[in-house]
Amino acid sequence: MNGEHETENTLTNRQGHPVTDNQNVRTVGRRGPTTLENYDFLEKITHFDRERVPERVVHARGTGAHGYFEAYGKVGEEPVSTYTRAKLFQQSGKRTPVFVRFSTVTHGTHSPETLRDPRGFAVKFYTEDGNWDLVGNNLKIFFIRDPLKFPDLIHAFKPDPVTNIQDSERIFDFISNSPEAMHMITFLFSPWGIPANYRQMQGSGVNTYKWVNQEGKAVLIKYHWEPIKQGIKNLTQKEAEEIQGKNFNHATQDLYEAIERGDYPEWELCVQIMSDDEHPELDFDPLDPTKLWPEDTFPFLPVGKMVLNKNPENYFAEVEQVSFGTGVLVDGLDFSDDKLLQGRTFSYSDTQRYRVGANYLQLPINAPKKHVATNQEGGQMLYKVDREDPHINYEPSTIGGLKEAKQPGTEYTPHIEGNLVRQKIDRTNDFKQAGERYRLLEDWEKEELVSNLVGALGSCRKVIQDKMVQLLTKCDEEYGHRVAEGLKKTGSDEKGHIGGPIGATQTDEAVEKAEQEGHSADPY
Hints:
Elements: H1 39-49, E1 61-71, E2 74-75, E3 78-79, E4 95-104, E5 119-127, E6 130-137, H2 150-157, H3 168-175, H4 182-188, E7 203-204, E8 209-212, E9 218-226, H5 237-244, H6 250-260, E10 266-275, E11 301-310, H7 315-320, E12 333-335, H8 339-355, H9 432-440, H10 443-457, H11 462-475, H12 477-490, H13 507-517
Antiparallel strand pairs: 1-4, 1-11, 2-3, 4-5, 5-6, 7-9, 8-9, 8-12, 9-10, 10-11
């Protein structure tokens, strides 16, 4: 319905009022002053002031795309129903719509996509049973295993609260006191720490989850995304810096242009399966997110593939406002006792309510593509009531309202017992897999890893350097020795100085070079 003289392209404000002059505020005379009742101006400028919701604390810089997940109906060569009753996996060829958000973890919304950092790999499945969010990273492990340490980890990697500059000394001060991080650090400072783009990187759920079948029996699960068509590519520090000098949005542009030209990226979803017990035969705890499950014992089993074939229509409405949570599971999927996963499950959805609002799930990008009926009321930006009877917003009721759903299979009821304690897991084994990863790297990757660590540690105090060398030597003697020898050549600054972006070298020289090579100009 349009007013007289209005078309679909007539500019209005959000009240539907036609805007007849979008160039000039109302003033007393041509030169002003302006008046307080400039309604169109106030509506326009106050909305502009609020164009940005609070930035994500982590994963602020991101891009995304729509697509679909196509199930194989099997896990490896077995029927998938053997292990899970989740409907999206059951039939071969069954397609489920998805939205994927790729991101960098540490830096802000317009930071370079060439920085050394884990990459987020979050997938929202719009299934017939509601949404399933598989929220992970490109690397298959993490720095820590206890969620209590997560704010400290991020604070150490974020800019100094005084200088507002990321500083490698802060990072390694934390890492050198967190031996469980050695495995992740070995990946992060190797070429795996800078994927060439988002299309050519792996993804992982990182944490351990569970699958539950129709009989209510569960197995432990690890999820892995493998880029089956486009392959995997990483960058050296030097290559990344050269790319950054020309285009710091290169990964976003790469994904967008690939989809626009019809070169749709694909990933195969594989799972590793383990029986749901403590596995005393292993030298690590299978719920420890700083560890990999060995593929020779727990092979990657394909369950389906994902294709991204549509770019967002609006970045803010989709990529920026899309909201994920590790607790968003459908029937047939469940949590494990992984401590980090349990902490993430509270934190993720809580931060969405703070960042986007209490009714963030009513936004189209977050809403499930199925019937929704809740008794939730009010909250910021309530868009609609989620039920047929607007009067009965409680349950149970004999006069109307919503009713409970039927249990679709035997309920999963794991047995839990033990004392309430604040203790580490028994099998920490912080160094073995880090050493194995170092030895598996190609020679050029080892050189890059050592060079990047030496460059970053060079700005740290000697006490931090010594602690890191000690930990790296426990991973592999050659590994620690090479870093120690590199540090001897660079020396150390007992007072410490600002180290600059993680992995970057000669950051002090860049500051000096800007002053020395800047061209003088007269004031105007």
